[in-house]
């Protein structure tokens, strides 16, 4: 787990060997301790260099170890032996020095970084804090403001920034290990005391209290209800106000409050879930590690609406040439100007030049004959999409992949009108497509493994978190959204207000409650879909009793809001009122209150007090319940995929882990019992009826979320 060599006759070279990221697992900690002891006791050794194998210094603690009882030597005494020794120790940082890996480097007397290396303390993103001295040592080295920013955000910094801040002593374009060996020899004989970070005094700014108060306000605003950043601030305060040893004790006490918390478990689950989600499978046995993606050099995007424009930008900024197609000259010109503006702003922000030369705009599908891949992003209308796919089938060369950005229509029906159904898949981006990280890759029954591998790999290239899903109405994300939105409107009927429901969801951790979010997204889109599917408008069967469709409960309040021209922020009125169209500051609207009161009295509904607990349970348990059904139907391969979709596509609070993880944290038995209770109270809401999988898992003793897959195996899978 660490290699020990004597090089240049007098330098001990300790190489961490724990692929893939040389994490500080128990055997690695053991090996560092033994190697240091050997180096310090060998009279031939005059200096020590620590590096990592395969160009990666160290990715920090082995996060998998956090789930069980801590075994092996604790890290801090191992690191203290490095600092206290009488021989200079140099960290040779290639690739990354993160978390405990960065702390290891901070215990060394010198740090040399390769110019491409990244450094940081990302513990806060895992719900903990840098507890191997990071909160006490970094402030001593670079001062409170810079340390506070790095520790509370978990941001990775470049080697150049690390040099500027005084974290590393030298940056090299050469091999960091070679440079560190030379450096170590020159350090022999120089006094080590000033190089021991623990002996430094933290430079204390005169306005410390104000600084920490401002940081506290900032994290409370940015991540309300999240504990770790607040604990980080308290630990940094200790670095400024306490001697080193007392500060270390405080750091360890604060870590104890976080380490076993539900938030830490959720955030660490999110880390692994995100990596698991990339590992797609198909019923044929094809999967992520046995299917080769095609290289995509050129693409076309059809439709330059909001989605199409975002997709063009996402492709062009990673170097793919794009032909953008519109149906009318005016729409094309408008789209062109907006895409260019977006790319220019994006390039300015990233300090690069805009890749405008990769773009071509056209009115003719004939121009697409040679592209590698097409993404159709026209209006959400099946007949129109079918016409486009038929045309593409004629125009594009036989090997071109044809993808659709539909948010829920049948991908296989589109495949069926082409001459190449195996080369058709869904690539469902989320709005705005150049900002949102999620991509649902929809695997139709006839999509080939090469098609799915290519769509997943293209998503990764664009910086998206891609998740493979099955082909069912709404796929995974939007299919689950419907029962969630339904519950919110049923709660309005029963006596709640939009403000109350939003507040309960925001207190839970959502950045925006369901009604504020709907106002932002625009209410007219859903209204149009409901009209088209005959749920509202002139096509409604007059035999339907009020507030019922196809025997199920239906809430017409969202339709009534739209009938008044209230489409959300863009019209200045929606579930809330705004000072003017486009404003974002939502204010409660007495007209909505009136509408609700009139509605309730028309239907003889006696409003009741609804608790926040009921709001959370009904909205979120029904969301998870649909997730269980999706797993049963084989439309998502595992709960982690569903959670990743909700984290990245629907802003589910990360410290809650996602709807499926949240259900497991609440306890599946409790979720089942509450769903049964609510279904009994509302038998005309089938989504409240507990799913078979939920019942099965409870009957099996509610296994942890990572084991659910074993219980789904026997059921059918589309993935
Ligand atoms: C309990 C002992 C006492 C310790 C006391 C000190 C406490 C210190 C706290 C910490 O150090 S917490 C950990 C801090 N480090 C991080 O948060 C880094 C996490 N990793 C990453 O950000 C990235 O993985 C990376 C290092 C930047 C590499 O990115 P890349 O895109 O190249 O690869 P990935 O696909 O992300 O990862 C590859 C593979 O490695 C697994 N992995 C990565 N980091 C860790 C880790 N720290 N522990 C365990 N496993 C890790 C990752 O899950 C992937 O695994 P897979 O099976 O191939 O999916």
Can you walk through the features of this model?
The chain is of the alpha/beta class and 719 residues long. Helix content is 46%, strand content 12%. The strands form four sheets. An eight-stranded mixed beta sheet has the order 12-11-10-13-14-15-16-17, with helices on both faces. The chain has a six-stranded mixed beta sheet with strand order 1-2-3-4-6-9, with helices on both faces. α2 (75-84) links the parallel β3 and β4 (89-93). The longest helix has 22 residues, at 329-350. Residues 20-21, 23-24, 59-65, 70, 75, 96, 98-100, 122-123, 126, 131-132, 272, 275 line the site of ligand LOW37U6P. Ligand LOW37U6P binds next to β5 and α11.
List keywords for this structure.
719 residues, alpha/beta, eight-stranded mixed β-sheet, six-stranded mixed β-sheet, 19 strands, globular, binds ligand LOW37U6P, oxidoreductase, Enoyl-CoA_hydra/iso, multifunctional enzyme, NAD, fatty acid metabolism
Main sheet properties: 8 strands, mixed
Catalogue the ligands: ligand LOW37U6P
β-strand amount: 5-15%
Cα-atom Rg, whole angstroms?
Answer: 29 Å
**Count of DSSP H/I helices:** 28
In short:
Residues 299-471 form the 3-hydroxyacyl-CoA dehydrogenase NAD binding domain. By secondary structure, the protein is an alpha/beta fold.
